[in-house]
Write a structure and sequence with these properties.
By secondary structure, the protein is mainly α. The chain contains 15 helices and two strands. Helix 3 packs antiparallel against helix 10, helix 6 runs antiparallel to helix 8 and helix 7 crosses helix 9. Keywords: Cell membrane, Membrane, Transmembrane, Transmembrane helix.
């Protein structure tokens, strides 16, 4: 199997993990405030990855320098922006609107690819992004209301996630995978902790009567181990074999998996528009995966400079 296909399936597994843990996290943050939850979650993940690095991958530690630290910090900063502003935005807007606006990172990634890296995209990539965006709208926007400050905060979150995806593709080929992931996750943990102290009742994060509840413990274990440590290790390891646009489209499957999980575990009902949205997101991902050679007439439509690389 081609490395690009292995990468795509691995990243799809990450989207599955994130979607499957959505209900668990929702239950947990009713006991522990969101920034505090992320503080504990990312700290546990950083400790686990750090132990693995120290015990089994010590040779990567020798590669530590200012460059790898800066790269990991930048990735962690934008990842924190994604989680932090999404949390703040949810105070003022609905979860469905937040899901749709967060999903707009699917559009932002190819846009930033063009602006920042001066790359061109194939037409089927554009079509895939367009179809997936319509699918996101149908899946999430069940209560269309006027825009508010929360929507603006979540929009900043989408920018954060888009830049994290884009820059992960840039740095993963330059630095050791595990070391880069540890720095990234530790950065999110530190920034989440500072934010929790500033904006939340952070002492609750150290209250045994809250931490030891089954809902919080289950959420912390599953998110720290699978949805954070494993997920971002996989992303950092495999994104070098695929493109940022494909990664964004694959991650757009997260709300699809969340909807399926909610239907299966929590008894949530799926409307016909939501089902259509799921199918369109999947179709958009598949369209972007198809090589342009399958469609001779679908040649790249944007050339920013002569000899520029094409992102398919």
């Amino acid at each position: 199997m081609k490395p690009s296909l292995i990468a795509d399936f691995s990243l799809l597994f990450v989207a599955l993990i994130w979607g499957a843990t959505f209900v668990v996290v929702q239950n947990a943050i009713s006991f522990l405030e969101p920034l505090s939850f992320n503080w504990v979650r990312f700290t546990l993940a950083a400790v686990l990855l750090g132990l693995w690095l120290t015990l089994f991958e010590r040779k990567q530690i020798k590669s530590f320098d200012k460059k790898v630290f800066l790269a990991g910090f930048i990735l962690g900063f934008w990842l924190f922006i994604g989680y932090g502003f999404q949390t703040l935005g949810l105070v003022y807007t609905t979860s469905s609107k937040a899901a749709f606006i967060t999903g707009l990172s699917v559009v932002m990634v190819p846009l930033f690819t063009i602006i920042l890296f001066r790359k061109r995209l194939s037409v089927n990539a554009y079509i895939g992004v367009f179809v997936a965006t319509i699918g996101l709208y149908l899946l999430t926007m069940t209560d269309v209301t006027g825009l508010n400050i929360g929507d603006g905060l979540v929009f900043i979150c989408a920018i954060g996630f888009a830049l994290q995806i884009l820059l992960t593709g840039k740095y993963t080929s330059q630095f050791p995978t595990l070391l880069l992931t540890v720095i990234q996750i530790a950065t999110v943990a530190v920034l989440s902790g500072i934010s929790a102290i500033l904006f939340e009742d952070w002492q609750r994060a150290f209250d045994p009567s809250i931490l030891l509840t089954s809902e919080v413990m289950m959420a912390l274990i599953t998110t720290a181990v699978f949805a954070t440590a494993l997920a971002y290790l996989i992303q950092t390891k495999f994104q070098k074999y695929t493109t940022a646009t494909r990664v964004a489209l694959i991650f757009a499957m997260e709300p699809v998996f969340a909807a399926i999980t909610g239907f299966t575990w929590a008894g949530d009902r799926l409307s016909y528009s939501a089902i259509a949205g799921c199918l369109l997101i999947f179709a958009g991902m598949i369209l972007a995966e198809l090589p342009a050679t399958r469609f001779p007439k679908l040649k790249p439509v944007l050339t920013t400079k002569k000899g520029a690389d094409t992102e398919v």
